[in-house]
Amino acid sequence: GIVSLISLAVLSYERYCTMTGTTEADTTNYRKTWTGIALSWMYSLLWTAPPLFGWSSYGPEGPGAMCSVNWHSKDTNSMSYIICLFIFCLVIPFVIIVYSYGKLLCAIRQVSSINKGMGRTREQRVLVMVVVMVICFLLCWLPYATVALIATFGKPGLITPAASIIPSLLAKSSTVYNPIIYVFLNKQVSKML
Question: What are the G-protein coupled receptors family 1 profile domain coordinates in residue numbering (predicted)?
Fold first, then answer.
């Protein structure tokens, strides 16, 4: 799940850099792509390894069919980890996504002011794609984060195993939605289909 979140942030930043860069994209050089993938996995490992070394712990999630961070532990050790996880693996990636797509929209708006007809439709398509991606991101991850924070900081037993199933499944299925969004909202890809 964290790799998915970080990958979305890296992709949004990469898309912003590619679309606003002054040079033409080099489709034969995969160095930036592999660097982005490696950084996503290393950052994710940085934040998923601490429970293995004593900062919080892993345990069954929901009805016991899945494994996750032990959200129900009320000790300071676990709570501090969950706060850091929330900030560094949800809030910061979300800020990067909003920043990157916001700057991308500003750049497209500047170009469309020069080229009225073609630029306006491109701006609208990118705007729709950005809004859909951000909404999907929030719909997938906010319920999970909310349930996790309530389980951590709320009264014990407030979040039942059954109540945590749907937010968990939404979060874990988030990787499926972005390719679908790209396919249906990207004019170049939909022409190929």
Answer: 1-182
Tally of structural domains, the chain: 1
The residue segments making up the domain with residue 59 are 1-185
Q: How many CB atoms lie within 10 A of CB 184?
A: 12
Which amino acid, residue 66? M
Task: Provide the CATH number for the domain around residue 49.
Answer: 1.20.1070.10
Q: Model-level pTM?
A: 0.78
- Tokens 């750049």 correspond to 107
Q: Determine, yes or no, domain membership for 151.
A: yes
Extended beta strands in the chain, E state: 58-61, 66-69
* Cβ–Cβ < 8 Å for 99, 111: no
**pLDDT tens, 86-134?**
999 989 999 998 898 888 888 777 766 666 655 566 667 777 777 787 8
Q: How far apart are CA 98 and CA 100, in angstroms?
A: 6
Looking at the domain assignment, is residue 24 inside a domain?
Answer: yes
- CB-based burial, 121-150: b 16+ in 10 Å, e otherwise: eebeebeebbebbbebbeebbebbbebbee
Rounded Cα–Cα distance for residues 31 and 159 (Å): 44
